[in-house]
Amino acid sequence: MPISVTMPRLSDTMEAGTIVRWNVKEGDEVTSGQVVADIETDKATMEMPVFDDGRIAKLLVPAGQSVKVGTQIAVIAEEGEDLSVAASGGGVAAPKAVPAAKPAPAPVPVASAPAAKSADEDETVTVGGQRIRVSPVARRMAEEAGIPLSSLKGSGPGGRIIKRDVQTAMENASARPAVPFAQVAAPAAQALAVPVAPATTRVSGGLVMAGLESERVAVSGMRQTIARRLVESKTTIPHYQVSMRFELDRLMAMREQLNTELAETGIKLSVNDFIVRGCALAMARHPYVNASWAGDAIAVHKQVNVGVAVALDESKGGGLVVAVIRDADRKSLRTISSEAKTLGEKARTRGLSAEDMADSTFTVSNLGMFGVEHFTAIINPPNSAILACGAALKQPVVRNDELTIGFEMTATLSSDHRVIDGAMAARWLKELKGLLENPATLLV
Amino acid sequence: MSALREIEFRDALREAMTEEMRRDQRVFLLGEEVAHYNGAYKVSKGMLDEFGPRRIIDTPISESGFAGLAIGAAMQGLRPIVEFMSWSFSLVAADPILNNAPKMLYMSGGQFGCPVVFRGNDGAGGQLGSTHSWCVEGMYSNVPGLKMAIPATPDDAKGLLKTAIRDDDPVFFLESERMLGMKGHVPEGEEILVPFGQGRIRRAGADCTIATWGRPVHFALEAAEALAKEGIDCEVIDLRTIRPLDIGSVVRSVKKTSTCVVVDQSWSFGSPGSELAAQVHKHCFDDLDNFVHRVHTADVPAPYAYNLEQEYLPNARKICEAVRAATYNA
After folding, report:
1. Do B328 and A140 touch (CB under 8 A)?
2. Of A122, B142, B222, B327, which is most buried with the most CB atoms under 10 A?
3. Are A432 and A353 members of one domain?
């Protein structure tokens, strides 16, 4: 009896998989446990073993094609079975490709990044290892209309996107109502793998709404980098958030005292300086929070370089840079404070050098100065975590079972689940809580 | 009534020369059989009677000699018209016409101009064999310092030739034996002067620009009619002069159509067509939906056999195929 091999469900959320590469060909002998194919799922490229011995009678789905979980993809003939009989009798109807699978793409190197790039890159974008071909006028028209090239199916030779394809997309876009945001916000990985309906109105997480008047503002290089990196981060890193409240009465008191005493020297410590110092010290016992996912390994960093997110002037187009305070675990509060101040000013005036922004191992983002109570941040790759700090607010609090007034701050750690599990994040926050709530420890 | 007058291409050429000779005593015509025989193709019919043998001059079969004579006369202030029975025969006069005439103004530091017109039949005349079927525009337009006009209709033939005779630079004027009998409307009694470097839109269209000149203009118009039935709306631009080249008209058209087919009856390698295509690519890069497609004469010596010669030349079928390919309708 021929054995049917189907597309396995390799992750909880997997609905379809792409055969990146067959490692066997028809007629090959296979043994149980042998990896016969590489399957690209919504999360990663994984190896697919078989669970029977026999010979491959038929490969039903070519490399590069995406099929739904459960679809038959191969037939294995058991020992003694005739290959051709197994191939014809063991098969179900030819699998139906998930709509708009790429036209016979070259095998994708396993090492290639998951198909999750921002959708707004131009013709240099590679989809499944293939360069998008587009005629110059089609590229210009798509750009002007805000239609991502990766959403278009080319009807020209070799799949070249031509003027007609863009015109069709534009006509469909204007003929249809705007897509609900939820649909638009689909992960980029999906946006690339699944051919967008002709009515594509997806613009890298935004919408082209035919009925709205809007001014098109050219995007700066920094804005493009922010867009690219954050889409990459948000779509490729499995983010999750853990929040904790911090009692900052003692820290606020100590800060006031220190600032009074240091006033003559011109030093003014911010709450954020304490937080940076606290985060750096918390790494000593929790090295995995100070680490990076390296594909097949985790890089646990020996230096603690804390990045501080600096917002740039909105009137100048805004923007966000991360100034890095190197070896923050070995620097005093005073040093951290003066470095943060210098880098912040430099960022807003002259701009930071590449070195000023390089090699962060962790990032702190603070919106406390705006009175924000709580928010979450997107991880700054290759960091594995980022701490989003709200304001230290005076509010009714319970201390020693009594209702009183105190300073409290909520901070939220966004973590990369590939590196940091939930309990690890919680333990690190508890460590930080101990440091910030007993601020004398920050002084030594 | 005069507005509806139709005359042959050869008559239009004769009218241009005659009018200019009446207007300017410095103009004279020389070439093989232009006088007593009334021209090998009857272009100069009756001109000997009107202007006499001092201005309508029969020459020996000696292109290098009489071309050189004309250049010398032009340098001294006369305005000769040299008729080559065929441009194929001009090859033996390559040194005077290419090495002297176009460079004279430059090499003499502006002391000597060279207001000469060389004219004659260019391209395949119909089973004349490989050595008598030259399209010299491929080679000759390569030379800076000369002007080159290639008319497609009688009115342009007259208007361009009159402009050529008045021009102060050497003008290479390319006619076609296949077109001398073609009739067309040429207004009588009014001065027609077609400026150089101004193309003419022969047919307006939105989908594909066909840029060409000379005899292939008619093939292009024929192709455009056929393609219109398929729903492909072609714009046919007749460039009329190769030097100067009216790239502006082509660019304006291509910015509208996004596709371009260049039709040139010279060989493709290093031709006016390849130059035009390169210029379109440069000026219209972001407007193109496909690369510029080209229809040329086949890259072989002209065959003698009728069927092979037909297949060798650009024709409406080849232009249709190129337009379909360029517009992704193949």
Report:
1. no
2. B327
3. yes
Minimal CA separation from A134 to chain B, in Å: 8
Into how many domains does chain A fold? 3
- A417 catalytic? Reply is yes
Q: Indicate the range of A125-129, A208-212, A288-292, B288-292 predicted with least confidence.
A: A125-129
Q: In this structure, are A366 and A282 located in the same domain?
A: yes
For residues A68 and A14, state if they share a domain. yes
* A141 touching chain B per CB within 8 A: no
A167 touches chain B (CB under 8 A): no
Measure A137 CA to nearest chain B CA, in Å.
Answer: 4
What is B52-100 written as a DSSP string? -TTTEEE--S-HHHHHHHHHHHHHTT-EEEEEEEEGGGGGGGHIIIIII
Which residues does chain B have within 8 Å of residue A137's beta carbon, measured at their own beta carbons? 258, 286-289
Distances from the Cα of B77 to the Cαs of A427, B104, B193, B325, in angstroms? 102, 13, 22, 51
The pTM for the full model equals 0.53
User: pLDDT tens-digit profile of A255-289?
Assistant: 999 999 988 888 899 999 999 999 999 998 899 99
The nearest alpha carbon in chain A to B328 belongs to A156
Q: Could you tell me if A244 and A215 lie in one domain?
A: no
pLDDT digits (tens, 9 = 90+) for A344-368: 998 888 788 888 888 999 999 999 9
Size of interface A-B (CB pairs under 8 A): 29
Are A422 and A430 a contacting pair, CB within 8 Å? no
Kindly state whether residues A377 and A321 are assigned to the same domain.
Answer: yes
Percent of chain A clearing pLDDT 70 (strictly above)? 80
Share of chain A above pLDDT 90, in %: 40
Residue A341 maps to a domain: yes
Tell me if A163 and B258 make a contact (CB, 8 A cut-off): yes
Residues of B belonging to the active site: 63, 132
Residue A7: phi, psi to the nearest 5? -65, 115
Question: Would A395 be classed as within a structural domain?
Answer: yes
Indicate whether this complex's ipTM tops 0.85.
no
Domains of chain B: 2-185 (3.40.50.970), 200-326 (3.40.50.920)
Cα distance from B288 to chain A (closest Cα, Å)?
A: 5
Show the CA angle centred on residue B56, arms to residues B53 and B61, nearest 5°: 100
Rounded-to-integer distance, Cα B94 and Cα A121, Å: 55
> Is the confidence at residue A210, as pLDDT, over 60?
no
* Domain residue limits at A263: 237-443
Let me know whether A210 and A245 are in one domain.
no
